[in-house]
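Here is one such protein, fold included:

. . .
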Amino acid sequence: MPIRLDPEGNEPAALFDFAGGFSGQRVLEIGCGDGRLTWLYADQAAHVVALDPNADDIALAIQNCPPHLRERVEFRTGTIQEYESPETFDLALLSWSL
């Protein structure tokens, strides 16, 4: 039998409860990996900058990005320590990053 991760949907429920909604928010996601979590909320956010130090994961996230999110989600390879931008964000996420 294949392993099913979070079949009850607890992770997205906790994420939305914690964040209080993503509607219109500018989100910085630290440690986005292959975008698994990004796809759960990005359609509600105004803009997402998703960072991960693993270039292979970022390449996979870009490849798997749903077409309707390509204008809204910006994937970048790097760490938060290296990230420099004049942008401001309404919300920063760290999931499975520590």
